[in-house]
Amino acid sequence: MKILREDCLREILLQNYNKKITIVSAFISGIESDIKQLLDQHNQVELIIGTINAFSSIDLIDFCIEEAEENNNFKFYIDFRYDDSVHWKLYMIEPDITIIGSANFTQKGLKLVRDTCLYIQNKKLYLDYLKEIAEVKVLDKVLDCKGKNFNDELEKYRKKHLKSRVWLNSNSTDSSLEDYLKQEIPPELAILIWDRYMDEEEMKYIEAKVGKENSCEQLNFDKHECFKIDREYEKDYRENEIILCMNKRGNKIKFFCCQKIVVDKSKGNMYLIDFLKKRSEGPFKLTKEIKSRLKEKALEWSKDETDKVKLSYEDLKELLQN
Asked: Is the pTM of this model over 0.85?
């Protein structure tokens, strides 16, 4: 038995070929390349993740599902029990190695910057944990990504994950982008690239709708912000979410607090409203350099067939590159 030091965990995992590797983690982030390498080295990889706080990104989950569909050596399970889901940080390598500690299967976790793990070479412990995992996998809400009801549960998870994103970005400090990207929970940020303006009829509709639903909220277009988008994006934005906004030319870049969403089903539009009189603070500072990079990217994103509605960790990291 030994205590693992900084960077040892990733090194131990990636040195394996033709082995069975089992990983159980409370959540995952930034480990696409590690999964790819383990599979390229002909390992059989089984990954089980929890759903406490729904922190694992949808993009990463979709990546794991795709890998499992294309490669029979990869098995992917999600424990959809949320607060009761697995909170383990467990790594097992056949025939007899068990690594357990506080490190989730994330970029920061694998580096052991702030976490600790014990490396134990013991056949009985290894087999005992395999039995424990087998018992977890037969629980009702622990589902194989290829199994029945998985997609239905994943759709519910998507909604919970969006709520988590709203909470995380609303509670982040006005730090640098570099610091924002250092957090272990994978950052995601809603983005709105707009090019549509409201006419007078639409303004009257929104004013009436807001006044009817809540008499305490009086909309004033001279003081308050309101953005118009297609209703098809209704699932991509939530009230009280911090959104990075700009037009399609990459101008008027700022953070926007979406305090109210009004949907006009008859016209297929939705309206995002901010009642704040002052500019909203975001999870990081919009420096001159970041705005310049966003302007360049906005031109790229506006050419895509599908509108950009969120910035992933990789998208945000690109903003730091020269």
From this structure: no
Neighbours of 124 (CB within 10 A): 8
Contact 143, 77 (CB under 8 A): yes
Q: ∠ CA(317), CA(244), CA(250), 5° rounding?
A: 85
Closest by Cα among 232, 233, 250 to 302: 250
Give 100-158 pLDDT, tens digit per residue: 999 999 988 999 988 999 999 999 999 999 999 999 999 999 999 999 999 999 999 99
Rounded distance between C-alpha atoms, residue 76 and residue 265, angstroms: 38
Q: Name the residue among 67, 2, 65, 61 with its Cα closest to residue 39.
A: 67
DSSP string, 41-84: TT-EEEEEE--GGG-S-HHHHHHHHHHHHH-TTEEEEEETTGGG
H or E stretch covering 99 = strand 97-101
Half-sphere exposure of 264 (CA within 13 A, CB side): 21
Separation of alpha carbons 16 and 243, rounded Å: 42
Contact in structure between 269 and 201 (CB atoms under 8 Å)? no
Tokens 């360049």 locate to 296
Strand partners, 9: none
CB-based burial label for 79 (10 Å; 0-12, 13-18, 19+) = buried
- Burial readout 25-64 (b: 16 or more C-beta within 10 A, e: otherwise): bbbbbbbeebbeebbeeebbbbbbbbbbbbbbbbebbebb
